[in-house]
Structure formats: structure tokens, C-alpha cells
Design brief:
Radius of gyration: 31 Å
Low-confidence stretches: 154-178
Distance between the termini: 113 Å
Structural class: alpha+beta
CATH architecture of the largest domain: 2-Layer Sandwich
Order of helices and strands: HEEEHHEEHEHHH
Number of strands: 6
Largest sheet: 4 strands, antiparallel
Strand content: 15-25%
CATH class of the largest domain: Alpha Beta
CATH topology of the largest domain: Tetrahydropterin Synthase, Chain A
Shape: rod-shaped
Number of helices: 7
């Protein structure tokens, strides 16, 4: 009878020991997987259109219209308390406003790679980490102040009323001087 009790205690001890070892081993494997970076991939996000005035000699000469795309790690984007688009737009505005050049009514050639790199660095600095991987140009245009007032470059076909379709548009072309 004592023999059966000793065997029973032995079986219980082996069962408890193996359960503890299995739980410890599973917990160790789960924590090592959690330490590995989860690569959910990159997300591409567009900024809204940004209109930046170009001021020369105290007056507005025209506007730069910019729309950018930025890439960021998807997992990191989910952990941020604030959307990074606000900081990307702010950095783009500061960069183009500060370093944009208008000479004789035309925008000087930008070094886009340097400009985009400065936007990326400024945004990551504000976000306290390497959140933004790359900044790309979706569109970058310049509209002279006189062109905005005369409507040159504006899609008039979509904004014209139906009764305007039969009118001759040469009078508006003569005003713009083109």
C-alpha cells in the first residue's frame, strides 16, 4: 500500500514538474517572438494640398502648390498619438517658404532630393524618432500672382455655366498677355 502512495506522489511530482517546464518554455518562446520587430510593411500617405506664398521684396509674387507623399512603418504609425501628416505639412511649408526662390516671376530650380531630405529630417526630429522613411513629391507647381487673378491655368471648362459654352473665349486670352 505504501508503494502505491509513493508511486502516486511520484507521478504527481513528475506531472507538476513537466507542466511547470512546459509553461516556462512557452512563456520564454513568446517573449522572444515579441522582441523581434514585426514588419507590417510601409504605408504611403498623401498630404493635403499645401499653398505656400512666395514673398519677394515685401510682396507676394506667386504661390507654390505642393502635395507630398510620405512613407512610414505601418506598425509605428499605429502607436503614434498624433498623425504625422501635420508635421510633414509644417516641415514642407517651412522648407519651401524659407528656401524657395522666385527670380523674375519664375520659381528657381529646386534640388528636390535635398529639399525632401530636409523635410524628412525635420519631421522625424519633431516626432522624436525615425517615423518617416521617405518623402516623395506628388505634385509641385508654381502659380504667378497675375496668373491667379486672370484665371490662367484654372480649369474653366468645369466651372463654366452651361450657357457660357457657346461664347468665344478669345477676350479672356487677350487680357492675360499670353
Amino acid at each position: 500500500m505504501i508503494r502505491f502512495i509513493i508511486i502516486g506522489v511520484w507521478v504527481c511530482a513528475v506531472a507538476l514538474g513537466s507542466s511547470y517546464a512546459a509553461a516556462y518554455w512557452t512563456a520564454g518562446a513568446a517573449s522572444s517572438k515579441a522582441e523581434e520587430p514585426y514588419l507590417a510593411g510601409l504605408e504611403y500617405r498623401r498630404t493635403p494640398n499645401v499653398t505656400i506664398p512666395m514673398i519677394v521684396n515685401g510682396g507676394v509674387q506667386g504661390y507654390v502648390l505642393a502635395r507630398l507623399v510620405y512613407t512610414a512603418d505601418a506598425a509605428m504609425l499605429r502607436t503614434l498619438p498624433v498623425e504625422p501628416v501635420i508635421f510633414v505639412v509644417n516641415a514642407a511649408f517651412e522648407e519651401i517658404y524659407t528656401n524657395g526662390r522666385v527670380e523674375s516671376g519664375k520659381v528657381s530650380k529646386y534640388n528636390l532630393n535635398e529639399m525632401l531630405q530636409r523635410i524628412k529630417v525635420a519631421t522625424n526630429t519633431r516626432l522624436n524618432g525615425e517615423v518617416i522613411r521617405d518623402v516623395l513629391v506628388d505634385s509641385l507647381n508654381y502659380i504667378d500672382k497675375t496668373d491667379m487673378r486672370s484665371g490662367v491655368g484654372v480649369n474653366t471648362a468645369s466651372s463654366a455655366s452651361p450657357k457660357d459654352h457657346g461664347k468665344d473665349h478669345k477676350s479672356s486670352e487677350g487680357k492675360s498677355g499670353h
